[in-house]
Write a structure and sequence with these properties.
This protein is α+β, with helices and mostly antiparallel strands. The chain has 2 domains: about 100 residues, Alpha-Beta Plaits (2-Layer Sandwich); about 110 residues, Alpha-Beta Plaits (2-Layer Sandwich). It is about 20% helix and about 40% strand. The strands form 5 sheets. It has a 4-stranded antiparallel sheet, covered by helices on one side. It has a 4-stranded antiparallel sheet with strand order 10-13-7-14, with helices on one face. Strands 2-3 form a two-stranded antiparallel sheet. The radius of gyration is 22 Å and the shape is elongated. It starts with a strand and ends in a 7-residue tail after the last strand.
Length: about 240
């Protein structure tokens, strides 16, 4: 299990239609990582990209849709990375492997239990939902504003936040924000939904409001229902 501190991150770039012994290369890599008990891996499908051949691959090019780029991210200890890297090097015959130092700020998981849950508890509580409306082109320095807001919420240990990208919308200035014909518009509408306890609402808004140049923040009362595995009764 990963612990807080220094670690290494592997980023692998391959094409979706690249194969390894008859299977998709990205799928074979993922299975290999799981067999080696790597702490975690994520497969991402970017919306467009190009490599050494100089050809742009995107969903809009239907004839090349099967040739879309795939990105695999792996984070684990330096020792584990040194162990798996030789095999990854052999598997990736057409692609890029990048290794960089990183720091794990927080690594947590619930206790592992192979037995199926026998009971479930429902916890109800009053909460508030904060909706933040802004444009995808809005910035906080050199960083997209919506990413900066999510990072700020994480450092504040807010219970949860979700970013939604719209396809069409307008705000107080009556400017229309929409997705471009080729899905590369950088000014689509963005909504961030945040849920936390009512007593934290003012704290959250006070932290986010100075970051907003244009936009809207809306607060609604909601009832939060959280479903968790029920703990066994004492003496059972």
């Amino acid at each position: 299990m990963l612990t807080r501190g220094q670690a290494k991150k592997i980023t692998i770039y391959v094409n979706e239609d690249t194969h390894h012994h008859g299977d998709s290369l990205w799928d074979a890599i993922l299975r290999f990582l799981r067999q080696k008990n790597v702490a975690g891996a994520t497969v991402l499908r970017p919306i467009a990209g190009f490599g050494a051949h100089g050809t742009i691959h995107s969903p809009d090019q239907e004839l090349r849709a099967e040739h879309l780029p795939i990105r695999i991210e792996v984070i684990d200890s330096a020792e584990k990375v040194d162990e798996i890297l030789p095999t990854l090097y052999e598997m990736v015959t057409d692609g890029v492997i990048e290794v960089q130092d990183t720091s794990v700020v927080k690594a947590a998981r619930e206790g592992k239990d192979s037995s199926p849950p026998t009971a479930r508890a429902e916890i109800r509580s009053a909460a508030q939902m904060i909706r933040i409306y802004l444009g995808e082109a809005d910035k906080e320095g050199d960083e997209p504003l919506f990413e900066a807001i999510v990072k700020r919420l994480m450092t504040m240990e807010v219970a949860g936040a979700t970013v939604y990208r719209g396809i069409l919308g307008y705000g107080a200035k009556r400017h229309t924000h929409k997705e471009g014909m080729f899905r590369i518009s950088q000014d689509r509408p963005i909504m961030i939904s945040v849920i936390d306890l009512p007593e934290r609402t003012d704290e959250i808004i006070e932290a986010l409001a100075p970051m907003m140049q244009d936009g809207l923040i809306v607060v609604s009362d909601v009832e939060a229902r959280r479903f968790v595995r029920a703990l066994p009764e004492e003496g059972a």
